[in-house]
Amino acid sequence: MSQTAAPDYSYAGERVERVARAATDVRFDDRGLIPAVVQQVGSGEVLMVAWMNEESLRLTFETGTSWFWSRSRQELWNKGATSGNMQKVIRVLVDCDADTLVVEVDSPGPACHTGHRSCFFRELVADESETPSAGV
After folding, report:
1. 106 or 126: which carries more pLDDT confidence?
2. CATH number for position 35
3. 118: in domain
4. Mind listing the pLDDT tens digit for each residue in 53-86?
5. What is the pTM of this model?
6. Is the distance from CB of 110 to CB of 43 less than 8 angstroms?
7. pLDDT beyond 90 at 27
8. Coil, strand, or helix at residue 56?
């Protein structure tokens, strides 16, 4: 999507297969939605997870900024339009089943509505009554 940066045709150490959106059967769920994991380009940090519908995906490609579907408000929203922290979309990756997206962005500020850089600023830990298994 980005016209200024040199294209990076790899992800997770593997070459990325470039496919046209029109030629890919993106699998929206029965509500017409698909989950989108939003990552900061370069660092790979997960900023947020949101939902897209066909229209928000189209608007993302047309505008070069991230658009999502708000399940609670039942409306489209352009991430950062109110706060000024617009996410410039670098590229959109689709998984092997075409039912999940990764949206790589250049996000200039907080991605979370709480003001945090990432929505993932809380660590879930076992309760005292739970016996943690190895690695948790």
Report:
1. 106
2. 3.10.20.810
3. no
4. 999 999 999 999 999 999 999 999 999 998 899 9
5. 0.86
6. no
7. yes
8. helix
Does 131 reside within a domain?
A: no
Tokens in use for 40?
A: 């900061």
Q: What are phi and psi of 87, to 5 degrees?
A: -90, 115
Residue 45 domain-assigned (yes or no):
yes
What separation in angstroms does the CA of 10 have from each of 13, 15, 43, 58, 94?
6, 4, 14, 23, 13
Of 92, 117, 120, nearest to 104 by C-alpha is 92
Q: How far is CA 24 from CA 21, 27, 30, 53, in A?
A: 5, 9, 18, 15
Q: Which amino acid is at 8?
A: D
Domain count, the chain: 1
Question: Does residue 9 or residue 59 have the better pLDDT?
Answer: 59
